[in-house]
Amino acid sequence: MPLTPADAQTIFDENFAPWVRALDLQFTETDETGRCTAEMAITDDLTRMGDVLSGQALAAMADTVMVFACASLFGEMRPVATTNLEVQFLRPGLGERVICTAEITKPGRNLLFCRAVMRAEPSGKDIATATATFHLA
Question: What is the pLDDT of residues 63-74, one digit of tens each?
Answer without folding.
Answer: 999 999 999 999
